[in-house]
Write a structure and sequence with these properties.
With about 110 residues, the chain is mainly β. It has one domain: HesB-like domain (Hypothetical Protein Aq_1857, Chain: A, Sandwich). Helix content is about 15%, strand content about 40%. The protein contains two helices and nine strands; from the N terminus they run βαββββαββββ. The strands form two sheets. It has a six-stranded mixed β-sheet with strand order 4-5-2-3-9-8. The chain has a three-stranded mixed β-sheet with strand order 1-6-7.
């Protein structure tokens, strides 16, 4: 399960309102790359795969490929609009190493 703070949920709703209604899903993914081997990606998606896990949080439909759950299970996502370094913050209990940028991590 992915957990959103109220600030992260508010920001995702704001961003999603810019997309057409044909993109109702918020997809969380992990990509290879970044300072510590893996990085987070959030994107708005128009298609849900049959095998995707769906998590509903305050009218936000989050989808995750089951193969990615090893990396994303129990992920807590926060959002800060600080003038210096604002954005989404990821707190991942599965990470064995993280980068100072807050966007990259590793799992052994």
């Amino acid at each position: 399960m992915i957990h959103l703070t109220p600030a992260a949920a508010t920001e995702l709703k704001r961003l999603q309102s810019r997309y057409p209604q044909s993109t109702p899903w918020v997809r969380f993914e992990v990509q290879t790359g970044g300072c510590a081997d893996l990085s987070y990606e959030i994107r708005f998606d128009s298609e849900k795969q049959e095998t995707d896990r769906v998590y509903d949080y305050e009218a936000i439909a989050i989808i995750v490929d089951p193969a990615q759950l090893t990396y994303l299970d129990h992920l807590r996502v926060d959002y800060s609009d600080d003038l210096m370094g604002g954005g989404f913050r990821f707190h991942n209990p599965n990470a064995t190493r993280t980068c100072g940028c807050g966007q990259s991590f590793a799992i052994n």
